[in-house]
Amino acid sequence: MALETQQLSSLSNPLVTPEQLITTSTQLDQIPADLEQSLRFAAAQLTQAAGILLRLPQEIIARAIVILYRFYVGAEGGSFRTNAAKDVSAASLYLVAKPSFHPQPTRTLLNVYTYLTSPASPLNSSTNQPQHEKPDPGSYYLSESAYIDARSTLLQTETIILRSIAFTTHVVTPHHLALTYLQTLDVLPSPPSALSKRLAKRTIALLNTALLSPQILYLTHHPPALAVAAIYLAAREVGETLSREEWWEVFDVEREELGFLVVGMNSVEGWVWKERDNWKERGRGCPLDAEGLEREISLRKQEEDGIE
């Protein structure tokens, strides 16, 4: 992957192979495929939430999620069983933000993650915890000794990620490409109209939603294809008429790839709601640490034995 990076342009990313998607280190560690999907989604959601609380640009958050995905793919990649989702999420965000204009102090970053993984976190809405009860501030307080341990884990996980992905931190996000393409198609004039504003906002929203896709679209398709698919789908939703010609070919995107991405992007929201409902029925949230994952595996085995 490192050699491939040298040949990449500003419009492409290193993509995963079918073999890396079929066989992952997590599956080799006896984690069911559906649980792996849940863990990947929970880790991406955690990264997105942490980035928002840290007031990071969406580009940095998106790049961090892509780095996280890269780490967990392939038989040679990381495993959720040995590399906790919350640790990899924090390290990915820290790694991507470090060389940017928005580097994050380790204390600030770890305070945010302590809160988001505590019982007080808004991400715990899938559990049956009473909503009227005030959260205990002590549940998300990071003591000095706990901070030292967490900082050590953060820096160690950062090193593990870099080694696993062969230092391939090159990530091109499709967001700025989508806006450029809209201008090329003459549907984003200056000043923009009310309809063109809706189109642009919906396009960016679809690209952000695609980050959570269980199909890992950002690892299987290049940014131009993602941008074109988001524009195509957004235009249909807001009622904007684009060129009647096959305009996507101008951006080197074939009809088959466009169709696959449109279906994939369109299905993410329904999958996310189904995922949340599944965990709500279980009465617990998706585990983000190693101890919680082991408990979840044990509970599933007990449930299977009970059914049998």
Describe what this molecule looks like in 3D.
With 308 residues, the protein is an all-alpha fold. The chain is 61% helix and 0% strand. Helix 4 packs antiparallel against helix 5, helix 9 packs across helix 12 and helix 10 packs across helix 13.
User: How can the largest sheet be summarized?
Assistant: none
Give the % helix.
Answer: 55-70%
How would you spell out the order of helices and strands? HHHHHHHHHHHHHH
Shape descriptor: globular
Q: Give the rounded overall mean pLDDT.
A: 91
Structural class: mainly alpha
Q: Strand-residue fraction? A: under 5%
Number of helices, counting only DSSP H or I runs of 4 residues or more: 14
Q: How many runs of DSSP E, i.e. beta strands? A: 0
Q: How far is it from the N-terminal to the C-terminal residue, by CA? A: 45 Å
Any idea what the radius of gyration is? Answer: 20 Å
Could you list the spans in which at least 5 consecutive residues all have pLDDT below 50?
1-6
